[in-house]
Amino acid sequence: MKSVGVIGQGYVGLAVATAAAAAGHSVTGFDTNSTIIKNLELGKSHIEDVKDSKLKKLIKSSFYRPTNNPADLSRCEVVIIAVPTPLDSERIPDLRNIEAAIQTIITSIKKSALIINESTSYPGTLRNVIAKKISDATGINHRYAISPERIDPGNIKWNVENTPRLVAGLDNKSAKEVVDFYSTFTKTLKLVSTPEVAEMAKLAENSFRYVNIAFVNELAKVAHGFNVNIGEVLEAANSKPYGFMKFFPGAGVGGHCIPIDPLYLTYESKQKGLSTPLLDKADEVNTSMPKYVVNRILSDHNQKLSGKNVVVVGVSYKPDISDTRESPALEILKLLADNGAHTMWHDPLVSAFNNQLSSEISNQDIAIVLCLHKSVNLKKLRQINYVFDCTGKVPWAKNL
76, 257, 371, 390: which is the annotated catalytic residue? Predict the structure, then answer.
């Protein structure tokens, strides 16, 4: 078994760290967020996929140790980079977290190790950014490999252990080592020829979803123009046993991958003089959905929302989890406020969002359902005269 360091203890890093620890590796989970580390030391998990009971057991057994001290990584034989790769304010790939992880490795890892990147980025990141910068700075003969994360928060069927994992190395030795390592806690591995194949495959997976979500979002707008229920249309099409895959429209696209990964591909493609018109259009359609939702509500209220009490129901990006990353709720709340509405939000799983606390559903003038958790009280929701449903799960409401 290996001494393993995982840089980043978020939705990806903590899940991978605890899976490796459960397999018998000695795992150091590193994060710069002192609050997260303090809670982890107390056995308190901040993600749904890692239960407190499992965390406490691994800490007690000494197979898992959380820390915010980079020196604690010094003896690691395997170092995994599992940090967020968001977009900046201009919607351009932001690699600052990867750059910080690189610096942590440069300063902390003084002997040869297997460096693995799980963070999503454009093709060439492992070879031309991570490996090059570490090698140039240290001269240490590290081995470099990649295994793009495939974490779906809240998914009770697919997890770190049973989700097939792509792996690749910069050379044959690193490829063999990365296969041997992940085989200790992942059932199915697919070794591909180069890191660039794995990096692009990850972007392809989520770009596929982004394009298809854009299609049904556009179709929802068209169906409304024909006075046709988009949910019934998609159910009807889904009755065909081949050649159709059902996607769902919504008020926008949230989460840590789908709304971000395609822009890593489009950005780096443009740097190489390549065009991506389909992905560009998909992004235009998907990012237009919050404005479309608010315009629909304005249309139903004579273009006047001034003074109306409006509650947005569900600010996390998917049902029954608390993750609010890239939630369209933020833009919708802003657009509502710009139109003079008194805005509030309700989410039984989210403690704070948009510098506010969750409000109760209580006879507001308007409710907009963005994400429907099982714990949302539908009886209270039904007391509101006007409910606009973006989920297709509230049958009495106005539908998207």
Answer: 257
